[in-house]
Structures
1.
Amino acid sequence: MLEGLPMPQFEPGWVWLAGAGPGDPALLTLASVHALHSADAIIYDALVGKDILSLARSDAFLEYAGKRGGKPSAKQADITLRIIELARQGKRVLRLKGGDPFVFGRGGEEALALVEAGIPFRIIPGISAGIGGLAYAGIPVTHRDTNSIVTFLTGHDATGLTPSAIDWPAVAKSSPVIVMYMALKHLVEIRDCLMEGGRRADEPMAIISQATLTDQRVLETTLGEAPQALADSGIEPPAMVVLGEVVRLRAALDWVGALAGRKLVADPLGLRHKSDAG
């Protein structure tokens, strides 16, 4: 598949920090597939599936270094030291992360550590779940009839708490669409912060679980009802949360649902009716 394409050479002693995308192996970049075919050692995260790892060389060394909230997880310092150790052994080390390594993936931290250690590295971007996962749910992050601004934020900081550094009133007032990573644990607090900042309780919200995979689930709700709807649904992380009028577009753009027989609705925002009335 990659024959004839000008792929970079994966040299011994190098570390490639690559994004594996939101889950569906079909969304891997060609550079990431090339890295999987070439690496001697692969240090991978919890969101990297077996189908993706099956693309590794049969003699490659695979090591799990996943982080999941509320569960035993590898410490970041230990992961970084392990990457450096393997590179200093002359191995081609692939650090494989779900989504994009530089979008809430701590790839920047690991790359800075490699610079300090004198280890050469390459960054391979991946499709972030905040974009690709929403696209599979039929929700565009931007649409000219709803928003020209979108904010991406994380639902918890390094302490595991709701980020105190976020200016929630400013985000609530300035961004028509807010896409939230790792937000389920603190959804009640996040909802309250956004509503205190002026967001409507009836504003549409969606929660996408197992995005892009065969067991993907999409919960459509509202900001005010989201915590109870989430509890009733039984959805657990990993999941993306999106708030804004773009959620209404799913009625027309749920292409995955259409494959399963869902009838799509034209003009979900009611713009044609408003235009005719005018």
Note: The chain has a mean pLDDT of 93.
2.
Amino acid sequence: MAKEKKTYKKYDSSTDELNFTFSYNEKETAELHAKLNGSNSITDEDLRRVSLWKSDRVLSVTQDTLHVLNRLSASTNINLDDDIVKEVLEKLVLSQGIGFPMASAILKFIKPDVFPIIDVRAYRALTGIKPYYGTYSYEKYIEYAKDLTKIASANSRPLREIDEQLYCFDQKNNGPI
């Protein structure tokens, strides 16, 4: 017997509101934002904290990766299409214990006005499709980030809230992952 494909409710900006209360490890979230937002002295220990915040895993990055990450963090006018964004994402994703969801979580703490977190729930709420770990790519992340930036602008909300709102939307409307 063929397995039936599950359908998911997709976020529709014309009919759905993003008005959830997002609550996830609030103390650590606030501390990470305070420490990393705009910092130019990011360490591997900071990345470990973000990793543990996102999901309990071990990670390891090179000094070169940290150097490029700190350059990105110190930059004042970062655009998703900048070469350094691609370089940082590639270096992070090639590091032990870091995939696109973790890399995007690290970047969100450093530049929440540019980088949203991509994860199963937020992506599923945005597209109506459940992604699998191996289907994430640089291109998919940039397209997702641009889509969320448009939603943030259309709703007059900070970008840093939109992935959280879509996460909550999916949790409410689409059930377990």
Note: The chain has one domain: 26-174.
3.
Amino acid sequence: MSAQAQQIRIMLELQDGMNTRVNADWHQQGYEWYRAIWVECAELMDHYGWKWWKKQSPDTDQVALELIDIWHFGLSILLQSGASLDEIIARIERELVIRTDEQDFRLDLEQFAAATLADKQFHIGLFARLMAGVSLSFDQLYRGYVGKNVLNFFRQDHGYKDGTYRKHWQDGREDNEHLVDAVKLLDASRADFKDALYLELKQRYIN
């Protein structure tokens, strides 16, 4: 298995794990993941900018974060499809071609949203065009996705639900800031990247 295929498998397993934590029978619930995607698309458009009556500059960092959120929902659609993990991995590897010939990112975004609404599926190829539009690499997608998931699990494990979790850690900095540092510190190509990241967060949290 290629390194990329292994990383895709890790993301799929993390997504299944998080969805299962919310609802053990999530596969049978028929959640409208497509709706979450198009709502995120609207939020993403606001971060990119579309208002001709005022000066706006694309906030590409925030756009990238919104794309990572959409990836969560897209993976959920793929996992709910009934296809095997190996089939989903192969499909993502085949269709996630990060390039676009569209100069206007907003047109690619509208095409992606329209396709999502038309059949309620996740269009990997169109998503890849959005990644290309803001220069989001697969490595950045992977790091961002795993980081967000591991932090969500960490919060749950340390009292997020009952209100005992501390969002501000060392030096008064928020957990998200520590997450960014921890992700940069570790080698994302490691097979145990998610476990190493969890341990790094734990070390920072208890000190």
Note: Residues 60-80 form the longest helix (21 residues).
